[in-house]
Amino acid sequence: MKLRVLLTSIIAAGATMAAWASPVPSILTIKETISDTAIVYPESFETDTRIMRENWYLRNYTALDTEISGIASDNTSDEVFIERLKAMPTEIEMPYNQIVRSYIEMYITRRRDLVETMLGMSMYYMPIFEQALEKEGLPLELKYLPVIESALNPVAVSRAGATGLWQFMIGTAKGLGLEVNTLVDERRDPYRSSEMAARYLKELHDIYGDWSLAIAAYNCGPGNVNKALRRASADDGDSAAQKDFWEIYYYLPRETRGYVPAFIAANYVMTYFKCHGISPGLAKKPLITDTISIDRRVHFNQISSVLNMPVDEIRALNPQYRKDVIPGNVHPYKLILPSQQIYSYIMSEDSILAFDNKRYAMRSVANPVDYSDGGGNYERKLVTKYHKVRRGESLSVIARKYGVTVSSIKRANGLRGDGIQRGQLLKISSYQRVRVKGNEQQVADNSQSTKQKKKSTPTYKTRKHKVKSGETLSGIAMKYRGVTVADIRRANGIRGSRIRAGQTLLIPIK
Description:
Elements: H1 2-21, H2 27-33, H3 49-52, H4 56-61, E1 62-64, H5 78-87, H6 98-110, H7 112-136, H8 145-150, H9 170-175, H10 190-208, H11 211-220, H12 222-236, H13 254-257, H14 259-272, E2 281-283, E3 289-294, E4 297-299, H15 300-307, H16 311-317, E5 325-327, E6 333-338, H17 339-354, H18 357-360, E7 377-388, H19 395-402, H20 406-413, E8 425-437, E9 440-443, H21 450-456, E10 462-466, H22 473-479, H23 485-492, E11 504-508
Antiparallel strand pairs: 1-2, 3-6, 4-5, 7-8, 8-9, 10-11
Helix pairs in contact: 6-7, 6-14, 7-10, 10-11, 11-12, 15-17, 22-23
């Protein structure tokens, strides 16, 4: 009996030693030995660099460093690649294998021109990416995701319809709060898209707790990654073990398999480009920009013509406006300009909005004009109308309605600020097409009905009184013989007794 127990113990011990001695595949081994004979490269590798180099920023603010040798280095050993990747200060793991090498070689040999172009664009975009990632507390090496997503082209559109630097699909973009419509596509806005990309990446990392899986999910969606995790767990019979990208590599969609290797390669080539003779972009002069909020509809051509700056410059700094129009009448939008042009815009805003206004303005009301009742000759005349301020109306709203500028309304009514009151009567002067027939004149523009005109246009003679500080309606009425407070209220469309210094009142002459 004792002998049987002893033999059993010896056999068990031998089995245990054999188990220790046999090689157990590890995650590290998979990462180092994995290979793929059917690699699919991201669409960004197909980017036409000749078109990209026409970018206004590259042409005006960058130049290639001619001191770099420009000699391709295609015989770098695996050991050198491994050591260089290990030397990069990254939180995200950057393992090396033959798949990663294939992407690195693509960048440093066949697409060297693409890397040079991206290095030039990176001087403008990388600080924007870093700011968004830093705000969310994410690893800064994620700033190279747009390298493989869009090749740093803000207006890039994939075959599937993904758009912008971070290549968002419309559904994903709108789910993150980005605005996408005919005139505005915030997927192309470097600042807004970077903020949302950082937020989305953080959400994905919170789900998986692993950056390689989060990056893969950014490319193909969490649904495909979850499916790959389930299939991998079912095949190896270990559903409890946490798996990373390399363990589910062959379970992922083919185009996603190369996404993490391409990300590692992008980090490598944007760090070690000089080691491979690739010329970086150098700044010819600094570009300092500033932002202004636009609350009026304005076309890039209006800004370009008045400020004497190229339309291409405005487009390069504001790629989110798809039709060269800022629809500020919908809600305020931002406009980015070189900082020295911001003050010029503020000082010239009325001139910008008035420039070629008939061509670029959007009418809120348009009635057909009938010229069939007798013909006649037409000429432009200065026509004066009166507008009674309605609830919620502002000077900008009234100006758009009549096709005039805010400053012209202020001038005509002696207003200093933008404040107006409900019921206040405003004088509106504008040039309109007028038909001359005998001794009569008829305004061809029928923006208001005859009934409305009769209601709002005073039929009595008036004089003007500019309100001084401390004056009241009763005090003003006493200054003019036979004029009552009611007369002043009626002439100016005022219901209460509230007036302000600087306001111009119409005083009936009796």
